Amino acid sequence: MASVSSPHRKLLHFLVYWAVQRCRVSESPCRLTFSLKRPAESASPSQLRVSVSDTGVRSKLEEFLELNDLARETPVEKWDGTLLITTTGINDEAIYRYRFNLHEELSSARFSRLATTYKNHATFSGTEVCLCLSNEADADDLILWLVGFFHKILVLRAANLACELFVEQIGNAESRNVCLPQDSDDVHHSVMASSSDRLVSGLKDYALSHGYNCDKCDTCILNRDLLKTGTGAANNVDRRKAKGAHVEVVILIARTASDLSCWAVNCSSTQVLYFEDFVPCPISKSSFDVLVSVDWQSYGFKLKGGFIDDEGNAVLEWDDMPFARVDIAIHTYLECAMQECQGSQQDRHLVRKALKSALSHLKADHAGDFLSCHGQRVREYVPDLAESIAGLILSSNDKEFHDECVSLLGLGSDQDISEELVQSSICEKMIRIIELNDTKENVEDNAPYLFECEKLDEDSQLDEEDRDEDMIFDF
């Protein structure tokens, strides 16, 4: 699991990560709740009280031993290393409570068992972890990070997992709770939808709510279907153990600034949303290398460069951006929660495969919008070439030649044939052929004829003059 920058964020990220994995293991509908209580005055000596709870399987104390390094990095005045853990399994008769102090060197002093409560034949499972953090001046920044973090969690629309974030200001008669519920503007969202479809739905909601901004404009919501979507997936399954690594990629395009009026100014950069095991994470080095090394030009994008920001997010910068906005989400996860990672080389291969698949999907559905840079340059010459060919056809005094060309263009002989009509027909055919041959899959096939005509009998003998005329038609 990747880490984030500040000690507080690393700690909270860790607690949410393991809560999500416990919910995944349960394979039952679960709820993840994050609660933060802060004093009314930032200068108050009172601490930030944090609670992370889930209704997944019972936790294992070994999970929290991974916090040893983080506890050593964090000064005692910021976090005293103490965790209060409450947990129970679905088949347990009791609710168990523990105190864990990771700053204690002696193992006998760092762990203690607290009073046990019995469930009285009730059936439920779950874990709650409580701790206190120092109430520093950056508490507001921490809360903003939490809101953004949970917005990203909701992008995945994880099946059978409901997420809640509560921020409560205490010690003030006028204080009120701030709740971030899970909702969606996608009326077609289905409980039975695939994880890829859920990611598409979540990314659309994230993009149309303008990223971190919760305020949504009516224009965005109404223009949801105008977004162009490309999806790709790759997996490497270990059949012997029924386990495997999966990667899903979604690319979302707002084609022009006029598609979404609130995005009037085109965005020349993209912050890539990266997820590991259903939790937002800083991007891995191998995945970032894939992002900046993919042949974006083959799909109509001009990548200026990329970098990883202070929070570990990948940012791609575009040159001569033809789109209003590009949103990208990458999700890598293991088939079974809490299993060991498969290694960066495999991740790199799967991310590349899924990313290229998503780009190919975009190109297949919207060929004219995602021509390669070479294809775009070729297309620029089409109007002039079509005009020249139309002029040659209509300037001929040979009626038989004239009628044959009109027929090959699919224009009826009884139509009023104008130069504009002939030029438009030629232009459409040329563009269609350019689009068909702009993918690697089509390069190996014979390019289609510009004008469709019957193939000549193999036994036909043509003199040199007829063969030259045939070559012109076939072009």
TrEMBL record:
InterPro entries referenced in this protein's UniProt entry, alphabetically: MTOPVIB_plant
Superkingdom: Eukaryota
Protein name, per record: Type 2 DNA topoisomerase 6 subunit B-like
Species per Swiss-Prot/TrEMBL record: Urochloa decumbens
